[in-house]
Amino acid sequence: MSAIQPPKPVERKIELEPHQILLKPLVTEKGVHRATRNNQYAFQIHRDATKLDVKKAVEHLFDVKVLKVRTQTRKGKARRFKYKIGRTSDWKKAIVSLHEDHRIDFF
Question: HAMAP family in the record, alphabetically?
Fold first, then answer.
């Protein structure tokens, strides 16, 4: 049996800056609960961003230590405009867990 090889890094045509990776914080009732109890923060992120990109961006922009990043790709919803049916855009969400000594104070 051969050993399992780690995945090859994905080559992107564009390199994203930290302010391009984190699009906006997701401030919801559930998000505020996570921030106060579990020290986890949610952000809407660029669709091409990886977990490592998100970790580096949060650490660079907020001067905190990130323990874990979880990502989700959310599907857009069907919406109706007059007599036509369309869809909202798909988007990507990241939930970032911080070290217990660090906080992001805008939540």
Answer: Ribosomal_uL23_B
